[in-house]
Every structure is written in C-alpha cells, then in structure tokens.
Design a protein that fits this description.
Layout: H1 10-19, H2 22-32, H3 34-37, E1 52-53, H4 54-61, H5 65-77, E2 81-86, E3 89-94, H6 96-109
Antiparallel strand pairs: 1-3, 2-3
Amino acid sequence: MTDTALIPDPDLVNALRALSNPMRLQMLRWLREPERHFPMEAAIADPAEVGVCVSHIQAKAGLAQSTVSAYMAELQRAGLVRATRVGKWTHYKRDEQRIAGLVAELGRTL
C-alpha cells in the first residue's frame, strides 16, 4: 500500500530543481527588487508591471544570452517567473503568488 502523502508534489519538485542552480536562484533574487538591481532608465517597459528585459538580466549575469534564456525558461516552467513579450524583447517578473504557494507547500511537506 502506497501512502500518497509521501509522494512529493511534482510542482514543488520542479521548483526545487530550478532553484538548485545558484545562478537561477540569484536571478530570482534580483527580480525581487528590480529597481535596485537593474537600470531603470534603460527599461522599455515598467519593471514593476511587466518585468525586467532579458537583455538586462543577461548584462548583469555576465552570461551568454542563450544561457540566460535557458535559465529563465527553466524558472518559468517551474512557475517562479512569468514572461511577457514587449516588441521583440522578453521581460520576466517573479510570480509572487506562486512562490508563496510553493513556500507554503514546502513547509507542509517537510
């Protein structure tokens, strides 16, 4: 007989997997306070409303654009960020409601 309470929530496992990479975790931290970590005068959209342009994340991280895009896609698949297109640029913003839900689930699981 299997106890389903012992089977971890797949969404939680995906989020933990995404956060296991130190740079992805750092990017998520930066996005918590975009006005502090990214140049607001260079923004083409409101970072509080739309998010931070991937090119700004790439410049701060000092990584190749393809690497940053892959990292952000992993965070998006885990439900930790939302992506919005503004023209040809993709902007990323933390999904605070989803993050809070995952933190609560982690607390219940552990």
